[in-house]
Amino acid sequence: MKKRFWTIGLSFAFLLALLIVPVQQSFSAPEPSANAGSISGSALNGQYHLDNVVKIYVPSTIKGDIPISKEAHEKLVDQALTQFSEWFGGATAVEGTGAWMDKDKKLIKEKVTIVYAFADKLDKEDVNRVVTYAKQMKEDLLQSSVSIEVDGKMFFIE
């Protein structure tokens, strides 16, 4: 009777282990990142990379629709490139056109330059520096807001 009890007990424990281990592994398996499947096994494996990006949209107008000179805009872009390079080790500027609808449903367009930098990490101090910088730019250009982007999320700094 004792031998049968032990045999049934060991069989039960074995079956339980077969069920619990796969379930436990499915809950503890790390989630793959969105891009991991597409680049895993590529020539990029093991290469140094930066996970975060921060951007500021440098306007070319005062009060939202009064153009500043090309030289003044270039100076603002150079200042942003300098600041981002000091804070994050480097920066890039890309020209574009921004647009929005005013309160009268009129399309307002302006030249913008997006200055951006990649970073290994972005902490609270890094983000606060960029927000303070955007607030100063907003005040200097009498804008209603200046846009920044942090890791794909747009913020309107008012």
Question: Summarize this, please?
Answer:
The protein has 4 helices and 7 strands, in the order H-H-E-E-E-H-E-E-H-E-E. With 158 residues, the protein is of the alpha+beta class.
Detail the topology: elements first, then pairings.
Elements: H1 2-28, H2 36-39, E1 52-59, E2 61-62, E3 66-67, H3 70-88, E4 92-101, E5 107-119, H4 124-140, E6 146-150, E7 153-157
Oligomer: single chain
Strand line-up of the largest beta sheet: 4-5-1-6-7
The share of residues in helices is 40-55%
Characterize the biggest β-sheet: 5 strands, antiparallel
- Outline, from the CA principal axes? elongated
Give the distance, in angstroms, between the N- and C-terminal Cα atoms: 80 Å
Strand content: 25-35%
Low-pLDDT runs of 5+ residues are 23-32
What is the H-and-E element order? HHEEEHEEHEE
Total of helices:
4
Summarize the structure in words.
This protein is of the alpha+beta class. It has helices at 2-28, 36-39, 70-88, 124-140, and strands at 52-59, 61-62, 66-67, 92-101, 107-119, 146-150, 153-157. The radius of gyration is 27 Å and the shape is elongated. Mean pLDDT is 84; it is low at 23-32.
Keywords:
alpha+beta, two-stranded antiparallel sheet, single chain, 42% helix, 158 residues, five-stranded antiparallel beta sheet, 28% strand
